[in-house]
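Can't attach files on this board, so I'm pasting raw text. These are the components:
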Amino acid sequence: MPPTSYGTLYLIPVTLGDDHHEPVLPVDVVNIARRLENFVVENEKSARRFLGSIKTLRPVRELALSTLNEHTQDKDIPALLAPLLAGQDIGIMSEAGCPGIADPGAKLVALAHRRGIRVKPLVGPSSILLALIASGLDGQRFSFLGYLPAEKSARNQRLREIEKHSAKANETQIFIETPYRNQHLFDDILASCQPQTRLCVACNLTLESELIQTRTIAEWQKLTAPSLQKQPTVFLLLAS
Amino acid sequence: MPPTSYGTLYLIPVTLGDDHHEPVLPVDVVNIARRLENFVVENEKSARRFLGSIKTLRPVRELALSTLNEHTQDKDIPALLAPLLAGQDIGIMSEAGCPGIADPGAKLVALAHRRGIRVKPLVGPSSILLALIASGLDGQRFSFLGYLPAEKSARNQRLREIEKHSAKANETQIFIETPYRNQHLFDDILASCQPQTRLCVACNLTLESELIQTRTIAEWQKLTAPSLQKQPTVFLLLAS
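---
Top answer:
Structure tokens for the assembled complex are below.
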């Protein structure tokens, strides 16, 4: 058991867009986030906006926010644990959704385990998980691959590998793209994959404009393409 | 767009154990589940207990529950869509956590997409996701593998393959076991894997007895093994 004099590292999920938190966060999660005074955040601006929206017990300007993002050097991460070692709790927050997936938060969590600090994950929205369950693609086995290569020919090569692996392992393949390149990725999938492969696009999850559709490549080719440009989108592919 | 005369298929997450729903379900999710009158459930007994606990608007005995589990034949699944085609909403529920992951619910969701029925995923607890974010293992890439082979030598062989793939792809490997075999699996991992490989065991997630620890194989070998027997546990492994 970790020394009881240490604080707890809470993994605080936040909303996926500018929506309200009631539809996507349990009351108890909001109450925990409200009383914390120390945060490690991926994006300070969005974190302050979220903390303002949940009405923290202390004014947001009095809370201690440290940044952990892709520019943070590994040597600077141990210092972020200081409040925990001094007995105070910390909340870690990603820019959107759950911390520690496709963001650098996992490094701080790993350090906490090494120091025997209690890590407490809280329930909230994850676009990857919501997309997976809503896709109807087999959730018995799945892989999240993060971003695919940005360069067109490397990406098409990778898409063919992904499709091959999906068919062989009967495994749903999940990937994302920076929103302004979504439409290119969608077009490349339609051009590179087999007609009977199933593709789900899950767009603007939890928002009013949510769109989730699963079709075969052959069916997508006959439809008017959905407008994915600049919309946060999760792509899921299952080949047979 | 789907015909507006169709109902919506809601994916209703439920608690992971006998805990209360307040810590793990958003209020709006509970309110949606409360007003539904048609359900497709993996386990009728646990579904009735959950519906009783959230105080459905109509008495639980008046709600229509159909079963979809591993014994359901594919030919019987299309009939489950009938209320949706007649304009009524359906809630689909797994025995624990989110529907459509490691349960047969995905087949109904896939059919709904084929018929142009709206699918709406709701936020709630997923032991796989909670384990992943709390493990501190790299969430940039991960695979969920479901169950490993039950037979010892096949399982040890599979563990070595998993470890090799994890190191090569820098990918966290997530898997589960039927709870009464957890201790055997844990012992086999310690015996089969490399000393520097990191292993997280995440046990009884969201419950009072929650235990989440990440250590290297070498460190686990020196510790008293945690008691995992008959406790729902997620195993996560990252090799380097």
